[in-house]
């Protein structure tokens, strides 16, 4: 493998049938399909940060992306951390402190259910992007095996 940047860019483009070595950043909440479509249609790779997306939204995004572009894209999520040990007294102190600087934070805000990471992973595999990445953490080994079986980098 060459470490020459020009050779690496050419290999990246060849791998994904791109004309330009441009990879859109997969930022959660900032990757509408329309932006990824524009990047892909300009010969780069579109992307979606799926962190806050339910599985059906991931599927809908991918369908829209494929319908209007070259279909080359990446999906990305954060790997969840273990559940934190809760300290309701400390949480109350933090809410009180934050309330001095902005709107009141409700105790119920801490009870928001987490997204189903396994369901997000299943949805990403189902749509079969070219690339699946994570910004933080390492995917579980069984998921990586399933990615490789589908030819997803």
Please, could you describe this protein's structure?
The chain has a single domain (5-82, 115-149), classed as Alpha-Beta Barrel (TIM Barrel), CATH 3.20.20. It has six helices and three strands. The chain has helices spanning 5-16, 33-41, 55-67, 88-99, 117-127, 141-149, and strands at residues 46-49, 73-77, 131-134.
**Helix-strand sequence:** HHEHEHHEH
Q: CATH superfamily assignment?
A: Aldolase class I
- Rg measurement, Å: 19 Å
> What is the makeup of the main sheet?
3 strands, parallel
CATH architecture: Alpha-Beta Barrel
How many individual domains? 1
What is the residue-averaged pLDDT?
93
Q: How many runs of DSSP E, i.e. beta strands?
A: 3
User: Regions with pLDDT < 50 over 5+ consecutive residues?
Assistant: none
Tell me the number of helical segments per DSSP (H or I, 4 or more residues long): 6
Strand percentage lies at: 5-15%
Write the topology of this structure.
Blueprint: H1 5-16, H2 33-41, E1 46-49, H3 55-67, E2 73-77, H4 88-99, H5 117-127, E3 131-134, H6 141-149
Parallel strand pairs: 1-2, 2-3
Helix pairs in contact: 2-3, 3-5
What's this entry about, in short?
The chain has 6 helices and 3 strands.
Task: Give me some keywords for this one.
153 residues; TIM Barrel; three-stranded parallel sheet; 6 helices
């Amino acid at each position: 493998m060459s470490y020459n940047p020009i050779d690496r860019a050419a290999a990246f483009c060849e791998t994904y049938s791109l004309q330009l070595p441009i990879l859109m950043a997969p930022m959660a909440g900032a990757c509408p399909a329309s932006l990824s479509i524009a990047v892909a249609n300009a010969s780069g790779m579109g992307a979606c940060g799926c962190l806050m997306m339910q599985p059906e939204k991931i599927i809908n995004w991918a369908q829209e992306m494929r319908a209007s572009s070259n279909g080359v894209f990446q999906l990305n999520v954060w790997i969840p951390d273990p559940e934190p040990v809760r300290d309701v007294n400390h949480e109350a102190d933090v809410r009180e402190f934050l309330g001095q600087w902005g709107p009141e934070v409700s105790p119920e805000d801490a009870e928001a259910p987490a997204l189903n990471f396994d369901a997000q992973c299943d949805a990403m595999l189902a749509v079969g992007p070219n690339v699946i990445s994570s910004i933080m953490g390492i995917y579980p080994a069984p998921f990586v095996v399933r990615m490789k079986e589908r030819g997803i980098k």
